[in-house]
Amino acid sequence: MSDNIPIAQPAGASRHAAGELQDLVLASDNVEGFLQRLVEIAVAFLGGDISAGVTVSRYGHPVTVASSDRYASQFDEAQYGHNEGPCLTAMRSGNVVLIDDLASDERFSQYRPRALALGVRSSLSMPLDGGDHAIGALNLYSGKPHAFGPTEQGEAKRFADEASRALNLAVRFAQNVEITDQLRAALTSRTVIDQGIGIIMGQNRCDADAAFEILRTASQNRNIKLRTVAAEIVTAVGHKPPLGGHPFNDGSPLVR
What is the pTM of this model? Predict the structure, then answer.
């Protein structure tokens, strides 16, 4: 954890953070990189002696996908083994969860001893909504009790709201890139198949339907894709593989 002191920010800080997050969306290559920079901005924006982490639900299981330091990931993961804690509650309920002093807060009886041993005294967990494929929480931890007063909570909540909007945008960008790659692969595959059909038509003096049936039968008999058979035909005739080949994308979303 850092040794900085003040958490409170000037009135324009929220707008500045929003601008940084929007710029971050445009500059990030992937959602994971975006989230890592997000926690770094959170610590810089909120200040204070805090650690920050982001928990995201993937296939129904919580995962720490970004942390400002090793402490944040330890604090998050202490909750996963017991399936309870402030970040899991915030993520599942959609409500902000504040712990003023873990030494006297008895809500999470299994998580509490482990977290205290790690040095947690207060925390603030806020839900993040990135759309249909990203549900998570932004988690702030401090080794001091009562680190998140009304001012700090207000600033953190505004930051989390901006982070949710930016995350939603980042996920949509990632999905659009993925869809574009899938379309490009599909068009490339279609081009190779059409080339193979054209060669079969010339060799067998048949129409396109008959040529496609020959190609399809070869694909089924060998249990390989149409594109692979077509690519072999094009390569055999042209003595080089077809141009612009791309592997198929399996369609798995980046964040679930």
Answer: 0.58
